[in-house]
Amino acid sequence: MEKVEITAEGEVLTVRLTGELDHHVAAEIRADIDEALYSLLPKKLILELSGIDFMDSSGLGLILGRYAKASEIGCLLVVRNPTPRIKRLIVISGMSGTIPVEAKEEAVTW
Amino acid sequence: MVKPTNELKCTFPSTSQNEALARSIVSGFLMPLDPDIEELADIRCAVSEAVTNCVVHAYKGTQGPITITVKCYDDRTFRMTVADRGCGIPDVEQARKPLYTTAPDEDRCGMGFSIMESFADRLLVSSHVGKGTKVTFIKKLSEASYI
To answer: ipTM of the predicted structure?
Structure first.
């Protein structure tokens, strides 16, 4: 089951994606992110991907598309905690020099 | 002609919901072979790319049948074809190039064929304009590891 959770803190917009990210779900997720991006105009957009079980090139397209949209409004997109599979796709697609990737421990809440 | 040890053929309509169905079908077919987790993930990604191409490009704005045929052989070779009866690709060589896409406005990054190629031992694409496209993905699975 795919899910998107968007939180804003100061000038940072964090989008936490979970589940399967394919073409079928990408359109809806894209609309949600873009709406938040244009209404909040953040300086940084974080895509937290540690909860993604499956991703294909539709997910890469979603990331690249958001990167371009964010750049247009002076916002930096960062991919956070990509799974090894996602990292591999980013490398295969030659995006590793373009999209900033960071790893950060998330606080665990019980 | 070598006889496959198992085979499956199925046809479903080109709705985007069926991208996940295609992944499940192919996963289910491969499970008895005890595939390596990474290889299984590669193949799940490859079928997703092929089926998405049918939904987004072959039947753009319309709907039609997608037929998946999967076969496995004694030597652990896995062969999958994904066929549509859609618009066809005028220039297959160009379509297979990384970053080439006819739908940049829809966030298509043009990496579908490149990803399938990188996960396959061989990837064959045959297409006829107005008749459809057939993508054949061939990969020899590594030996099963029994604990």
So the answer is: 0.91
